[in-house]
Amino acid sequence: MRIIVTGSNGFIGRSLVKQLLTGKHEVCVLVRNKTVQPQVNTISYNDSLLDCADDVQSWKPDVFFHLAWRGVDNTQRNSEENNLYNYRLTIDSVKLAKEAGCKQWIGAGSQAEYGVANSILSETENCKPVTGYGSTKQKLCNETQTLCSSYNMVHSWARIFSVYGPNDHQETLISYLIKTMFEKEVPQVSSCTQHWDYLFVNDAAAALGSLINHAGVYNIASGKTVVLKEVVETIQQLTGYKGEIQWGYKPDAALHFLCGSIEKISRNTGWSPIVSLNEGLAKTILNYNSSI
Questions:
Q1: Is residue 154 helix, strand or coil?
Q2: What's the pTM?
Q3: What is the pLDDT of residue 37?
Q4: From the CB of residue 180, how many other CB atoms can be counted at a distance below 10 Å?
């Protein structure tokens, strides 16, 4: 298949492109700069995705993956300005997919759409987002579904949970712990009694790829939890850090149990995670160690 990807320079986007190429798909990435990625076609745009409509139409794609999102870190993701920009960008991506003749549009949602449920979350859960970021994602889930239906185009929405791996954003807990422990600084964390759902980035990319030809909302998660204290201690062991850890330095969040059911995606696509948490953390630490 011929597949368009936005957000290909992002953490998950890079892995998705590699996954699609491994699956022998032809890939074209839409970027706001002139960076050329090996083995893929590149189309640049300026202010609006619709600026490159002619070039995208000429390429004749079958599927459109929209992962682009401005301000993904915790300090920017609830910015009203960013959420408005991302809303327009996402709606434009559906319009562009339609103009280009795509048969399917696949968007990237978030577990933040569910809000604070503290339970195993299935796709039928009543979404009650508590942040601007989660509300924007939920609004887009509904509006892109309506738009795709009016265009007679398959709509798929991936609710992505906590994905980790090499080159992840620096403000995540795992990235913070690895950096701090390698630099022999004292990690300052909460009680870390929360139960959390972590998914390695390669598994997340494979899950996204499995959604081709499958309509609907799907959780992208591991389907199981680990106590955060175990994550901290595993990273401590793998990095060889012997120093102190300041438990309880930061307050515990209201969300203390996060787990996404993967029954639907496993049943419909056959996908399931293959990388264990220990293996994924080891790969992430090895990548960090080789880069310093």
A1: strand
A2: 0.95
A3: 66
A4: 19
Whole-angstrom distance, CA of residue 162 vs CA of residue 240: 25
The closest of 242, 138, 232, 101 to 177, measured between CA atoms, is 232
Q: Exposed, middle or buried by CB within 10 Å (0-12, 13-18, 19+), for 21?
A: middle
The angle formed by the CA atoms of residues 65, 69 and 70, to the nearest 5 degrees, is 155
Q: How confident is the model over 83-131, as pLDDT tens digits?
A: 999 999 999 999 999 999 999 999 999 999 999 999 999 999 999 999 9
Confidence bin at 243 (pLDDT 50/70/90): very high
What is the structure's pLDDT at 119?
Answer: 95
Lowest-pLDDT range of 47-51, 74-78, 103-107, 162-166: 74-78
CA-based Rg of the chain, rounded to a whole angstrom?
A: 19
The CA-atom distances, in angstroms, between 276 and each of 110, 165, 175, 199, 234 are 22, 12, 17, 9, 12
Reading the block at residue 210, the tokens are 């499995």
What secondary structure letter does DSSP report for 251?
Answer: P
- Residue 265 near residue 210 (C-beta atoms within 8 A): yes
Helices (H), the chain: 11-22, 53-59, 80-99, 132-150, 173-182, 201-210, 228-239, 263-269, 277-291
198, 173 in Cβ contact below 8 A? no
Using the 8-state DSSP alphabet, how is residue 24 labeled?
T
Residue 24 phi, psi dihedral angles, 5° rounding: 70, 25
Question: Rounded to whole angstroms, how far apart are CA atoms 282 and 292?
Answer: 16
- Higher-confidence residue of 43 and 76: namely 43
**Residues ≥6 apart with Cβ < 8 Å to 266:** 223, 272
What tokens does 156 get? 């798929």
Asked whether the beta carbons of 56 and 94 are under 8 A apart, the reply is no
